[in-house]
Amino acid sequence: MNDQLPKQQQSFKEVDLGQLFRVIRNGFKKLFRFIDNIFKGIFSLIIFVLLFLQKHFLKFAIAGIVGIVADYFIDKNVAPKYISKMVVESNFNSVRQRYNNLSFYNDLAKAQDSVPLADASDITANEAVTIKQFVVDSYSDENQKILLFDNFVRELDRTTVKAIDFESYLKNFDAQDARFHHISVIATNSCIVKRIQPAIIASISRNDYFKLQKKISDENLAFQDIIYKQQLAEIHSLQVLYKTVLVKEADKPMQCININLSGNGQSENKELAIIKERDHLKRSLV
To answer: What are the domain boundaries of the chain?
Structure first.
C-alpha cells in the first residue's frame, strides 16, 4: 500500500508538467500567428496602396500640376497685405470705448462698407476699401501688472487690502485694464495705414463725454497752476520778511549770551521748513 502512493504522485506530476508544456506551446503558436497576421496585413495594405497609386497615377499627376499652376496665379494676382502696429495709452478710462470703436471699424472693414469707414477714418471710400482688418489687444508685462496692483490697493481701505493678494488680483485681471494696448491695421495699401492713425487716436476725443472729461481736467490743472504760483509767491515773500527780521535782530546790541547745546536752532528749523515747502510746490507745479 505504501509503495503504490509514491507511484501515483509521480504519475500526477508527469501529467501536470505535460499539460503545462502544451499550454506554453499553444500560447507561443497563437502569439506567432498573431504577429504573422499583423505583418501580412501591413504588407497587404502597402501592396493595395501601390496598386491604387499605379492605377490612378495619371490623375494624381494632373491634379498636382493644376494645383501648382493655380497656386502660382493666385499668389501673383492677389494683392499683398501690409500690417502696421502702434501702442496707445488711453486717458480718462476710455479703454473700453476705444475697443468698441475699433470693433465697429473692423466690422465695417469685413463687410467692405467703405463709406462709413471712410468717414470715420478721414479718408476716401476708394482708400477705405483697401483696409481689411483692425486688431486690438492689451500689452502688459509682470512689472506693469505689479504697478497696476499697487495703484489698485492704494484706493482700498485697510480691511479690504488684507483680503486681496497679488495672485487673486491676477486671476481677476481684465486685459482692458492694462496701461498699454496694441492696435494693428491690415490693408492692401501700404500708405493708407499711416494716414488713418491720427483718426484712430482722435476717435475718443470726438466723444462728448470724454470731451467734457478733458475740459474738466484742463480747468483743474489751470486752477492748480494758479494756486501753486500764489503759494510760491507767498513763500518768497515770507523768506524776504524772515531774512529782514534776522538782519534787524543781528543789528541789535548784544545784551546777553544764549548758549544752545541742542544744535537745533528754531531759526534753522523755520528756514529749512520754508525751503522744503518751496521745493515741494515746484515739483507739484511741474
So the answer is: 4-70, 82-213, 214-249+263-285
Query: With bands split at pLDDT 50, 70 and 90, how would you rate the model's confidence at 235?
Result: confident
Backbone angles phi, psi at 135, to 5 degrees: -130, 135
pLDDT, tens only, 25-55: 777 788 888 888 888 888 888 888 888 888 8
Instruction: Tell me the average pLDDT across 225-242.
Output: 87
Q: Give the neighbor-by-neighbor strand order of the sheet with 180-187.
A: 82-89, 180-187, 131-139
Contacts 24+ apart (CB under 8 A), 175-179: 175/137, 175/138, 175/140, 176/95, 176/96, 176/99, 176/138, 177/95, 177/138, 177/148, 178/138, 178/139, 178/140, 178/144, 178/148, 179/89, 179/140, 179/144, 179/147, 179/148
